[in-house]
Amino acid sequence: MESVPIPGTELNVSRIALGTWAIGGWLWGGTDEKASIATIHAALDKGVTLIDTAPVYGFGRSEEIVGRALKAYGRRENICLSTKAGLEWKNGKISRNSDPAKIAFEVEDSLRRLQTDVIDIYFIHWPDPKMPFEETARLMQSLKDQGKVRAIGVSNFDPEQMTTFQKVADIQVCQPPYNMFERQIEDALVPYCKSHDIALMTYGALCRGLLSGKMMPHREFEGDDLRQIDPKFQAPRFGQYLKAAARIEQLAKDHYDRPLLPVAIRWVLDMGIEIAIWGGRRPEQMAPLDDIDGWHTSDSFKYAVEELLQETVIDPVGPEFIAPPA
Ligand SMILES: NC(=O)c1ccc[n+]([C@@H]2O[C@H](COP(=O)([O-])OP(=O)(O)OC[C@H]3O[C@@H](n4cnc5c(N)ncnc54)[C@H](OP(=O)(O)O)[C@@H]3O)[C@@H](O)[C@H]2O)c1
Q1: What's phi and psi for 185, nearest 5 deg?
Q2: Residue 205, ligand 1, Cβ within 6 A
Q3: Which residues pair with 276 in a beta bridge?
Q4: Which one of 22, 51, 82, 235 counts the least CB within 10 Å of its CB?
């Protein structure tokens, strides 16, 4: 599997990271621990060396499952773990809190749940406007200096917020959303990261399944699945996105004789993104990992995707619905 160095660190990670939000169950209709552990092991067997999690994914459950999976697998020194801080929950309600005093406790909880003594990449999950970014940055730098964290990351920050943060601590990794349907970062965030030597580790490569090649118009979302409220999955937009996905699927077949899923992931990597996070929770979902390396999407393919998106998605919407209240 292709790998990439994280600037300013000794880390070298696979260009695909396994995302474990769904493995935590919360907002994905529940979790199955045995299948989750098998999924993590399947990804590692296929060469993935970076696992992304967060305390809020199942309120500790995802981190615990990742910790158990890694304990059983061994070779911790060859695997990079990324997790996050700065979200809290009460009665199922999420709010942002990047108070350094709170994060100093959070990091210990994450280390315990993950059964490790170091977090390879530690992200602030969402910018907290109530807390000066400099104060949070100071705590993150101190965690790095203490050796509890190897790289500092921010997620869902804009360039202005990152500039303020970087007055105190250098950022090594940035985690925004990015996929064929959600390209808002191209104008400002990508150039900022490139010019500041910050690795982009983007989430939602399959746009919550829309680009998996398996999404059906009548798919029922169980329990608390967030796609019940995702505006992309509501009529009439859902139809537009499904039509666009079907046309990209045809393009993928015509250009590369490949299914939609590996082409959607390859497209992210070929757009200059260092690492694409791909969310899965069943081991068989990891099979397409074998089909991502050794080829590239062409400029003509990328152009054809842009053209068809303009024709089919006449009422586009971004991933903003996902943001917890500021
Ligand atoms: N920093 C942040 O604020 C943030 C926000 C969102 C996500 N993330 C991270 O990014 C990760 C990925 O994002 P995501 O989970 O939202 O979305 P994603 O990777 O775009 O898509 C996950 C979806 O793809 C489907 N899928 C995966 N492999 C498949 C396969 N082989 N065949 C068919 N369907 C397949 C899953 O289907 P099923 O539903 O059938 O399982 C799931 O619905 C998360 O797990 C998390 O680690 C971070």
Answers
A1: -75, -10
A2: yes
A3: 16, 202
A4: 235
**Ligand 1 centroid vs 255 CA: distance in angstroms?**
25
19 ligand 1 Cβ < 6 A: yes
Q: Report how far residue 4's alpha carbon sits from residue 325's, in angstroms, rounded to the nearest whole number.
A: 34
User: Which ligand 1 atom is the nearest neighbour of the CA of 288?
Assistant: 31
Protein residue with least CA distance to atom 13, ligand 1: 204
Q: What is the three-state SS of 295-320?
A: CCCCHHHHHHHHHHHHHHCCCCCCCH
- 57 assigned to active site: yes
Distance CA 218, CA 303 (A): 30
CA of residue 150 to ligand 1 center, whole Å? 25
Q: 94 — phi, psi (to 5°)?
A: -100, 140
Q: Where are the alpha helices (DSSP H) in 166-236?
A: 189-195
Average pLDDT for runs of 10 along the chain of length 326: 97 98 86 95 98 96 98 97 96 93 98 98 98 98 98 98 98 98 98 98 97 94 90 96 98 98 98 97 97 97 97 95 91
Q: Would you state the structure tokens that stand for residue 305, as one six-digit string?
A: 């995707």
Q: Is 52 in the pocket of ligand 1 (CB under 6 A)?
A: yes
What residue ranges define each of the domains in the chain, with the CATH number in brackets? 3-215+261-293 (3.20.20.100)
In this structure, the residue with its CA closest to atom 35 of ligand 1 is 212
Distance CA 273, CA 178 (A): 9
Which among 57, 122, 203, 241 is annotated as catalytic?
57
Atom of ligand 1 nearest to the CA of 207: 20
- Is the entire prediction scored with pTM above 0.90? yes
Instruction: Compute the distance between CA of residue 18 and CA of residue 226 in angstroms, rounded to an integer.
Output: 19
For the Cβ of 302 lying below 6 angstroms from any atom of ligand 1, the answer is no
Structure tokens belonging to residue 194: 């490139």
